[in-house]
Amino acid sequence: PASLNPDCFPAKLWQLVNNPQVESVQWDDRGEGLLIDEHLFLREVLEPEGGDSIFKTKSFPSFIRQLNLYGFHKVAKQTVAAWTGAGDAAGTAWVRHHFYSPHFKQHRPELLAHIKRLTKTNRAKL
């Protein structure tokens, strides 16, 4: 939506998941949650070759904290031990995370305006 700052975390995340060139973040099958390949996300988004991260961190745990501060909840974590990615040795373990927010849905960008960063004041209201 036009009223949303394109530099805010939810807008950046929305652009990322809807970018067909980004392989590390995808919509789940229902378009109601995010699937994040931790290993690929680190290389592709947080620590890209020859570039800066679109987020203010290069740490995956810090990125997860941001998701939590914006009201995303972890649905599941899946560890796969026998995956071979580009440039990796066979058998490299990787983790795929699944996150959900009621205001972050595929084809519903107008819901992004409802995502607010949790602050002490916001928590007290909740």
TrEMBL record:
InterPro entries, sorted: HSF_DNA-bd, WH-like_DNA-bd_sf, WH_DNA-bd_sf
SUPFAM superfamilies the record matches: Winged helix' DNA-binding domain
Keywords: DNA-binding, Nucleus, Transcription, Transcription regulation
Keyword NADP applies: no
One Pfam family recorded for the sequence: HSF_DNA-bind
Superkingdom as given in the UniProt entry: Eukaryota
Name the record gives this protein: HSF5 protein
Species whose genome carries this gene: Rhinopomastus cyanomelas (Common scimitarbill)
